[in-house]
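ESCALATION

Customer reports they have been waiting on this structure for their group meeting. Please prioritize. Original submission:
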Amino acid sequence: MERILIIGAAGQLGSELTLALSQQYGGDHVIATDINPKALEKFDFCKTAVLDIMNQDAVRQLVKTENVKQVYHLAAVLSATGEKNPLFAWQLNMDSLLFVLELAKEFKMEKIYWPSSIAVFGPNTPKVNTPQYCVKEPNTVYGISKQAGERWCEYYFQKFSVDVRSLRYPGLIGYKSLPGGGTTDYAVDIYHKAIAGEHFVSFLRADSALPMMYMPDAIKATIDLMHAPREQVKIRSSYNLAAISFTPREIFESIKVHYPDFSISYEPDFRQAIADSWPDSIDDRSARADWGWKHDYDLKKMTADILANLPEYMVNF
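Update from on-call: job pushed to the front of the queue and completed.
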């Protein structure tokens, strides 16, 4: 039986993507892996395995034993966390990607998915409607690793015909898992604080606009890209992806419609400099033209959906 391997399944994106893939292909076809055994307890709908992506022998054995034909490689050290330990972030982010690409070449896998990020852009990038092709020059180790990873993905496609696909995610917002150390994670935590009746302290300025996306749209984009015919995937570095852009003040105002007593203050920290180097909005016309990308959620619709569903999940955090 051919199987799909998800590396780093317990993260914010992986948690929901694993469920979506299991619903689509059946749990027996999906293997959720993570380095944290306890985190795997929530995946009772598919196969699971404790896996350290840096243990190459273990990864190779799993791929061989389970006849893995597709890999979703989601394990990474994110932006804010990476700045605290840049050498480790570089090692994990880059070495793991190169190993997965080598495995794909060796075992002639069908497809590889690897996420990139708006972190590839830097302070000299056009900030409004950032184009697919432009100056990047990222200034975080996370962004540098993603830029390098994009080049490696395109290289393996061109040189070895590895069918690797990628999206430059904006900030991702979901309610089914906790934040994972990213600069845009304030937009997840703020909903938790509102429902708990707590004051929220934003580590970004009130007017810091960043591209964002609700998790259902991110899952849809990922699966749509992976289902697209090979010839329609014309960009093999990583596609720009966009949905909505907003500031901390704007998300706060959208929540106050539902929680009038909710309060916020602003205390920018080191993450402000990271946010200032990223775009305000993204031009994703290539994704929309090549494989029909279209988002469903705006800020108002997203806030209403999160506030309706998050209380059920908060008891499990």
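Sent to customer with the following note: The mean pLDDT is 96.
Escalation resolved.
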